[in-house]
């Protein structure tokens, strides 16, 4: 088994250059270890702080190898389409998948797991405003309706 003991990435920069620590699950650590071993090994000479890089042979590749926001959106959109092609249930479709959708999913699940601990949500998401924290502690309308149906 790969050596994936470290459970966090430190000093992740978000909007407004806010920094926070990001913890990773075992599955995420294993996937990241695979990526670093198989994909990033080719880029050992590249000086960059970016974690995910564009393909080495791309003519439009930035000097530091960073993926553009457009590339990230395209990758997630494709993942969403692949998922939807394999899932027959229309309720479980996720396309179009966007980066912020992943953030909202993480935040909502974190709120569920922590009992809507506003302090923990603020730390993990980097929000200072209670207005934004409230978004994650209140379920989406569809989920709220499902709760009522189950009474």
Automatic annotation (TrEMBL):
GO terms for biological process: DNA integration; DNA recombination. CDD domains: DNA_BRE_C. It holds the Pfam family Phage_integrase. Keywords: DNA recombination, DNA-binding. The keyword DNA-binding applies. Gene3D superfamilies: Intergrase catalytic core (1.10.443.10). InterPro entries: DNA_brk_join_enz, Integrase-like_cat_sf, Integrase_catalytic, Tyrosine_recombinase_XerCD. Residues 1-149 form the Tyr recombinase domain. The keyword Protease does not apply. GO terms for molecular function: DNA binding. Belongs to the 'phage' integrase family. This is Tyrosine-type recombinase/integrase.
